[in-house]
Amino acid sequence: MTALQSALDTASEEFAVAKEAMITKLGEVEAEYDKAIGGGGPDKVERHRKRGKMTARERIELLIDEDSAFLELCPLAAWGSDFQVGASLVIGIGVVSGVECLIVANDPTVKGGTSNPWTLKKSFRANEVAFQNRLPVISLVESGGADLPTQKEVFIPGGQMFRDLTRASALGIPTISLVFGNSTAGGAYIPGMSDHVVMIKEQSKVFLGGPPLVKMATGEESDDESLGGADMHARTSGLADYYALDEQDAIRIGRDIVSRLNWKKKGPEPKTEYAEPLYETEDLLGVVPSDLKIPFDPREVIARLVDGSEFDEFKPLYGSSLVTGWAQLHGYPVGILANARGILFSEESQKATQFIQLANRSNTPLLFLHNTTGYMVGREYEQNGIIKHGSMMINAVSNSKVPHISLLMGASYGAGHYGMCGRAYEPRFLFAWPSAKSAVMGPQQLAGVISLVMRAAAEAKGRPFDEEADKGMRAMVEAQIEAESLPMFLSGRLFDDGVIDPRDTRTILGLCLSAIHTNEVEGTANFGVFRM
Ligand code: COA
């Protein structure tokens, strides 16, 4: 084993500038996260409490084991949309009675916990995480169902919420619903599709239609309790398996249910003893230059993420724009692919392909550390087969069966985002640092390309080219692409699982690797036809 030697000068001017820029960006992310935590605002939270209820996050806090971590996913969902940041849903991985579970909690203070298009995307992502990692699903339900004004985008795809739950059950993944309040209309199928259902006295309301709707539909006079109260469901309909006296009692019962699942990880339990990195994680704040055109050595990041900073580099002298090698993180083996000088050439692509195949032979999860402007373009590179070689890497990433985790540290542009296991390549988890940017290409390059295309089109038609208008267009496009490349924007659209503090990266990766090992980790020898 070889321990990495850091050459990072933490006393340098560049380090200080990069660190300050990162801290500023972190502050911006935190301000947005605070909005998600604030739910529907102080009035709505106050009203909720006056009803004797806990908030979604308080329920989760009480549900998970004392002093254990909750890895919240997609907290900035819906950022930049017309909906509240967080999308009226809290999702994440928490340990309940010693079992890592996927927890989904409606935030009833935001529009009655109703599901808008972003809520749906977030709940589908939660289910995906549960499926891929074989995590029991616990739903903390309190939702008014579909967000009615956006029903056209919610109603038809929304069926997947219920389909996912029963498919999880069919795969043997336990599903548990703790119903804290409303679970009406389509929402009634959340407990309906769950293996275990807990309802709370005089608090849970589970019906296909509430009293006004029933009156409209059939003329029948009814009330909440007789239509869908916990008492009725526990004694009469049989939909409730457990009758809780209050919220705390429901959570206690939920914890008991999990403790009786006899749920065992298919992989190793998290280790308690492993070496810490030799260098401070705090330094990660200053590694990425605020100008992403300036390259940085990803070994400085690796040295602060992996156990004992030990990293056995694979092919260090070949394809040096991509660093590949083996390490351990919280005791779990991991193969790392990290961009060094931004551009991926043919050698880097071939090296990555071989490395991914090796990880599949040794059943080793892969970590992709992004800082790439994409595959090299130009006559020489085209003639030498950059498309073939890039395709080879994308083939390997697509067909690899070991779990992947992606971290966007800096740039993640063009097909480089794909080759490095971007969101569409289904990494088990994908996080971004506040310094990250992702788009089809850089803003200046993209505006320049549009400008060249328009100039050529004007020439072809024999029309004069308006230089002034072109300047204005380029400035506008650059600003738009810059804004759309930023991590908060991408996180809002659920293109990542969260924008994280670089200092938390090691802990988060450790939690992810542990969750991943709840399922079997098995590679493959079966890839697509490699175009040589
Ligand atoms: N779609 C969109 N907005 C909704 C909504 C829905 N289905 N249900 C509630 N809201 C909004 C309310 O208009 C209110 O908005 P505001 O914050 O701008 O004032 C906010 O959510 C809170 O609603 P309120 O009724 O004040 O809260 P509550 O906690 O007393 O009750 C519900 C919450 C969900 C029980 C209640 O609003 C309700 O029954 N809604 C209709 C549920 C329904 O029939 N859904 C059908 C889905 S298919």
TrEMBL record:
Looking at the record, the residues that make up the CoA carboxyltransferase N-terminal domain are: 22-273
Species the sequence originates in = Hoyosella subflava (strain DSM 45089 / JCM 17490 / NBRC 109087 / DQS3-9A1)
Q: What is the lineage of its organism?
A: Bacteria, Bacillati, Actinomycetota, Actinomycetes, Mycobacteriales
Query: Which PROSITE patterns does the protein's record reference?
Result: COA_CT_CTER, COA_CT_NTER
Q: What is this protein's name?
A: Putative acetyl/propionyl-CoA carboxylase beta subunit
Q: Name one Pfam family in it.
A: Carboxyl_trans
Query: Which part of the chain is the CoA carboxyltransferase C-terminal domain?
Result: 276-515
MF-aspect GO terms: ligase activity
The UniProt similarity line reads: Belongs to the AccD/PCCB family.
